[in-house]
Amino acid sequence: MTLDLPAQHNGTAAPAISEENAGRRYFDMNLPQWLLDLAFLLSLSLTGLGLPLGNLLVVFFLLRAWNHDREGFVFMLMFSLGEYAISYPKDQWGVNLLYPATFCYFLAMCLLRKNPVLKRTIWYFLAYVASTIVLCVIAPETLSNQWRTFLSYISFGSFAMFLLCFANRPFDIHRFWNRVFSLQLTICAFYIIDGYILRGWVLVPLSHWPEDWGRPSYTNLYIFIDSFPRKYPPGLFPLALLMFPMARHYKLRWWQWGIIIGALMASRTFTVITGLIVGYLLAMGTLRKYLLYGGFTFAVFTALYVVDMSMADPSEEGKTPMRIASSINQFISISEVQDDEDLATFGTGRMAQAIPKVTNIFETGNIWTGFGFVPATTTNPRFIIENELSLTQADEGRYVDVVSVEIAPVNLFLQLGFIGLAIHIIFIIALCRLVRNMKYGKYFINVMVIMIWFGLSGFASFCYSAGILICALAYAAVLLANKHTHTEKLKIEN
What are the angstrom distances between the C-alpha of 114 and each of 70, 159, 169, 257, 442? Predict the structure, then answer.
C-alpha cells in the first residue's frame, strides 16, 4: 500500500528552502531551535560525564525531535550512536547501543519497500556483510572476540534506519543541512570553551584525556589545568557533512567561520583540518575556484607554518604548539630517511606502529585473509608481538596486538587481508557509482572522500563506526532527496 506524503511539514526546524533560492545564502539559525540544540548537547555531555540524568534528557530530546524535527532527529540519533568524544554509546547506556542499533538496521531493510537504487544498495550491503563474516570465520581469532568490532564495521546499515524515519514524510535536504549546521556549530563552540576557557574535559569530556588520570566524570572533573589541552577531534568529524553545502549553497558569517576555525585549532589535528579543506575545495566544482581558494589556503598555511615554527620550544624536538609545522616537517624530512628507525618517526609515530605489524603478517602468511578483528586489549600471546620500533620507553608500549594501527587502510589490511581490503574498496566504489548521477550524488562522494582522508591518521574513515555513520547519513540524505524522482517512493509495507 502506498502511503501519501503529507503536504506540509509539522515542526520547528528551519523552513524549507526552494531549490531555485537555495544557492549562497546564510544558514538559518533561529534562537528557539538553537536553545533546544544546546540543551540536547549539554545532555549528551552529562551522559559522557556519567550522570544518569543526562541519559533521560537525551531520550526526551530525541523523542521531541522525532515528533517535531525529523531532519534534526536523524543527526541527533547518529551523534548519540557514534563515538564523537561527548559520550560513549558502548558503556554508558546499560547496554552497548551497537546491538539494538544493528537489529534496527536490518528491521528497517525489511520494512522499507524498495525502489531499484535502494534494492541494489541493500543487496550490495548484504553481500559486503556476508563476505566479511566469511573472513571472520576463516581468521585465526575466535568469532566471539571479533563480534563487537564486526558490528561497528557494518554500521553502514544505519542508512536504512535513517531512510525509515522519512518513509511517510517529506524530506528537505536544505532543512537537513541547516539542522546539521546549527548542531555542529554548537559542538564547535563546546570545543573552544573546553580547550581555551575551561581548559579541561567538561563539555567534550571524552576527547582523549591523559591515560593515567582516569575517565572524566561528574565526580572526577578535569578543569583549569595548567596548559591548553589538545581536544581530540571525533566531535568535529560531522563537519564533513557540511563542506559540500558550504561550498556550493551557503555562505557563513565571520563569527561562524571563527567558531569552526577555533574548534579546529583546539583539536590541532592536521589530517582533519586538511581533509575538510580538501572536501571544501573539491566541492567548488570549477578550475577558477580551485586555483583561487587553493592559493588562498596555501598562503594561510604558509603563514601558520611560520607562526607555529616561531612558537616552538627548542627543547621539544619535532613538536610545535599548533602541530602544523611539525606535521609538514615530517613530510619534508622523509627524503632523509635511511632505515626503519628513521621511518618510524613519520606520521607522529604511526609508521612505528605499522612497520613491525605489516612485517609480521607477511611472515605468518596471513596476507590474504588477515588476523580478524583482534581486540586491542587481547591477552592471547598468539596475537601479541614485540614492537622494537616503539617510541615509548615504557615496557608495555613495546608489546602490542597484531592489528591496531592508526592508519585506517593498513589497519583494515591487517584485520581482513588483501581480500577484505579489495571487498571494502569494491563496496565503496559500488555505492558511489549508484548515486553518482543522482541529484546531490556528489554530496555523498564528497563526504566519503573526506572520511577516507581522515583515515590516513586513523580517524573516522569508512572502517570505524564514527566515520561509517556519517557516510551512511550522507547516503540516506541523497536517496531521500531523490525519492520523488522514482515512480515507486520509499514507503512501509502495510
Answer: 21, 13, 16, 40, 22
Q: Which pTM value belongs to this model?
A: 0.86
Contact call for residues 491 and 3 (beta carbons, < 8 A) = yes
* Cβ contact 49:218 at 8 Å: yes
With a cut of 70, say whether residue 345 has pLDDT above it: no
Segment 323-339, tens digit of pLDDT = 555 555 554 444 454 44
361-406 pLDDT, tens digit per residue, is 998 889 999 999 988 778 778 888 877 665 554 444 556 778 888 8
Of 352, 321, 347, give the one whose Cα is nearest residue 333: 347
Q: How far apart are CA 119 and CA 126, in angstroms?
A: 11
Question: Hey, what's the cell of 473?
Answer: 547519513
Given pLDDT bands bounded at 50, 70 and 90, which one contains residue 41?
very high
Q: Dump pLDDT digits (tens) for 127-139.
A: 999 999 999 999 9
Determine which helix (DSSP H) or strand (DSSP E) holds 429, and give its type and residue range: helix 408-435
What's the average model confidence in pLDDT over 199-219? Answer: 84
Residue 395 identity: D
Question: Shortest CA distance to 181 belongs to which of 29, 374, 67, 366?
Answer: 29
Task: Report the distance separating Cα 370 and Cα 411, nearest Å.
Answer: 10
Phi/psi for 270 (5° steps) reads -60, -45
Sequence-distant (≥ 6) Cβ neighbours of residue 312 within 8 angstroms: 319, 320, 321, 325, 326
DSSP codes, 118-187: HHHHHHHHHHHHHHHHHHHHHSSS-HHHHHHHHHHHTGGGHHHHHHHTTTTS---HHHHHHHHHHHHHHH
Element holding 331 (H helix, E strand): helix 324-333
What's the Cα-to-Cα distance from 401 to each of 150, 332, 357, 393, 396, rounded to whole Å? 17, 30, 9, 17, 11
From the list 118, 112, 105, 33, the residue with the least C-alpha distance to 76 is 33
- 5 secondary structure, DSSP code: P
Q: Which residue has the cell 582522508?
A: 453
- Inter-CA distances, 186 with 89, 238, 247, Å: 20, 12, 20
- Residue 256 CA to residue 291 CA, distance in Å, equals 24
Q: Are 220 and 205 in contact (CB under 8 A)?
A: no
